[in-house]
Amino acid sequence: MGNKLMLHVDSTTVAPEELEGLEMPPATKTFQPVPHSTFHTLVGESMQRAGLRSTNVEVGLSAEEEGIRHRYFGLWHVQEEIIPGTNAFIGARQSLDKTMAAKVGIGSRVFVCDNRSFIADFVVTRKHTSRILEDLPGLIDKGVEQFFMNVELQKQLFGRLKNSRVSASRSHDIAVQCAYDKVIPFSKIPKVLHEFQEPQHTEFKPRNGWSLFNSFTEVMKGYAPQGQVDRSLKLSKVFMKNYGM
Q1: Helix, strand, coil abundance in the chain, percent, nearest 5
Q2: What contacts 243, CB < 8 A, 6 or more positions away?
Q3: pLDDT higher than threshold 90 for residue 184
Q4: From edge to edge, which strands make up the β-sheet containing 71-83?
Q5: pTM over 0.90
Q6: Pick from 26-40, 102-116, 201-215: least confident
């Protein structure tokens, strides 16, 4: 849901092998550009160290400016399920013209856009200064590790939600809190509560926290991909607070 590499400003999709041999700007004392092929490879190597495999890799590059394609965007679809029915995604971006730092994000919800929007459950960022090539592998590994620590929390949360009954008043209170925390606008509260009371999918008929959680995700399907990702992250935080996590 919402996992997407969106290229629509001045960028196009390319094959990963097209990253090799691209023109590079010169380094300076304060700026150390990293070849797009190297950055792409570092993310792939971190996935291998974590035991992750990709089913698909999407890559985009900005148009040439004086012979250089400055901006790189990538999205990896991870094969392994982190929870039943949910896979992880890894997004990455960087630039060679000082407009964007090197950034890698991992999560069940990842959105990478060439308008500089970048959303993921966990994000690591590194400016293109000296020693970047020494620091990036460790930073990427740390982001992957933090994400999977959070996955364990998510599994615990979903277990609690499935085993907790939710009254009508409790569902209303949580919906109001979600509106205050900008998960949904206040105008969507009736729609969420209606979805909870009369779910479209039979698996969400039990009156528990899991059904309520999915009432929100069902309503949020009407938002653009970037909005879905951002709101989903906020939704998880609200439920974690309400269920003592």
Answers
A1: 45, 25, 30
A2: 157, 160, 161, 164, 209
A3: yes
A4: 11-14, 54-62, 71-83, 86-95, 102-107, 122-126
A5: no
A6: 102-116
